[in-house]
Amino acid sequence: MSNQFYRDTWAEVNLDHVQENLKAIKELLPKDTAVMAVVKANAYGHGDIQVAKAALDAGATSLAVALLDEGIRLREHGIEAPILVLGSTRGSDAPVAAEYGISVTVHNESYIEEALKHLKESEQQLHIHIKIDTGMGRLGIRTKEEMKDIEYILQKQNKIQVEGVFTHFAKADEEDLEHSKNQLMKFLLILHSMNSLPPMIHTSNSAAAMRLPDAYFNMVRVGIAMYGLSPSPEIKNELPVNLKPALSLYTRVKQVKQIFAGDTVSYGGTYEAKAPEWIVTLPIGYADGWIRKLSGQNVLIKGKRTPIVGRICMDQCMVRVDEPIQEDTIVTLIGTDGQEAITADELAEKLETINYEITCQLSYRIPRVYKTGGKIVDIVNPLFRK
Ligand code: PMH
């Protein structure tokens, strides 16, 4: 059942673009720098299993998620590649991570103490990546002393194995890379203080992978660029790769009606016709992630921009068109139609947010249709997914 859907709104994910973006980034890297594909948050809304498989086929060697639960989901779908949980996990869940062969991020000593208690009975070793906070101010140890303490506990046991050490940049997507270079220096200082280095050392997100070769080490963690979106509007025009957005969002015209001067549209009647007008009802609303603040945003119908009028409802919204059109006509909410395009960047600007949030907010009600070579290769209706 999970490959059926019975509504006229869907997201199309071009897996060729995911792979082309990833390969283009790989081209920038030295041969011995691996790519970890970041597929957390359902692959930024694109669909974790499909994107993970496409990324691995295109040369990524490992995957990153934010939650242990997300990693388990990948394993349960048969994905055997190395997986790292970037976020925090509970020490008491260490045996679960070990059992599934999922590596976790460690950001303090107390996690290790707790994990060791729980790993006593465990047959499997737990693999960890130690996180260093060099200026993101989020997860991670900040000093050589903390690293020494962690190394000290770890050398007395054999249940936990250090697989990696990493940090995360806060401003690699800004014009000025000074802050990132500073973070890199702090990272190197702690790295040099370590008794021995683990096999994986990584710092770069998409922005750094495209702009900061000094930060490559032996792996980069690529998220947003794999989805074909720029890490920020600021650096969009100076990226060394031509990123191709992977996701488009479509719906269909469900009703076409004429209204007259004084008639209003949607809740609150905030939109009032000044003259006879044609109004089209679309089956997408805020419960799909097409949020109320998008009122006034354009959509594309037959290659022309046309505005959403009135308040966006939970499941529907209305647009004004110049002339009556056929019911079931395809409407592009994100993507290209003829000469016109509406990008996640445009929506992000309208909503005063970032493109990451646009694709992540597409909800569980939107079926995802996967294409390769222009053909549908898979359909996931999250409402039916097990
Ligand atoms: N590494 C870590 C630790 C991350 O948190 C992220 C993205 C990435 C790599 C990939 O970054 P990219 O998508 O810019 O390539 N994390 C987040 C976040 O927490 N909020 O927005 C993006």
UniProtKB/TrEMBL annotation:
It is an enzyme of class 5 (isomerase). It catalyses: L-alanine = D-alanine. Substrate binds at residues 138, 314. The modification N6-(pyridoxal phosphate)lysine is found at residue 40. Pfam families: Ala_racemase_C, Ala_racemase_N. The active site is at residues 40, 267. This is Alanine racemase. It comes from Pradoshia eiseniae. The lineage of its organism: Bacteria, Bacillati, Bacillota, Bacilli, Bacillales. The gene is alr.
